[in-house]
Amino acid sequence: MTGYETYGTPNKPESNCRTCNDFKFWSKQQRQIFHKAGDPKDAAKAGDANGDGNGGNTMREDCPLDKSQLGKSTWGLLHTMAAFYSNNPTDNQKTDMKTFFDVFSRLYPCEYCAKDFRKDLKQNPINVDSQNEFSQWLCQFHNRVNAKLGKPIFDCSKVNERWRDGWLDGSCD
User: Fold this and answer.
1) Distance from first CA to last CA of the chain, Å, rounded?
2) What is the pTM (predicted TM-score) of this model?
3) What is the DSSP letter of 64?
4) CA-only gyration radius of the chain, Å
5) What are the CA-CA distances from residue 146 to residues 72, 75, 120, 141, 153 (Å)?
6) What angle (nearest 5°) sits at the alpha carbon of residue 156, between those of residues 118 and 123?
7) 46-76 pLDDT per residue, tens
8) What is the C-alpha separation between 113 and 65, in angstroms, rounded?
9) Separation CA 134–CA 77 (nearest Å)
């Protein structure tokens, strides 16, 4: 294995991996598997009129993460790491953070997301010279992903308020 190969399940439509697919796709795939099994009782249990398989209720909290949940959790971790990064990092801290992002981009379980992550890292190299520069770099990185997904763009001037200090209105206290 070379130093640039990735791990995990490829993001292919036939992949049976909730981390690689959104929950709706995965759920539909599971219902189709039950229907192919030929047991009408299992097929009825597999889904309902809403198509979510559990009577219109939300998914259990202890289920494996889908792609959306994984993404939200990942961004939370990365932004929190940036928020508490040193204002004056040592050379070792800088190297460690760069290495973390390099390795992380190869180990991320959603192959499509990982490839996009690596591509963006190559085009926009990580800036770990200070807490502020790292947080701003990550916020801009996240905004590029949000733009691709049609999600709102975050005001990066508020990144430390959001991820480190809490909102100025005291709503996090």
Assistant:
1) 48
2) 0.69
3) P
4) 20
5) 11, 11, 13, 9, 6
6) 25
7) 444 444 444 455 778 899 999 899 999 999 9
8) 15
9) 14
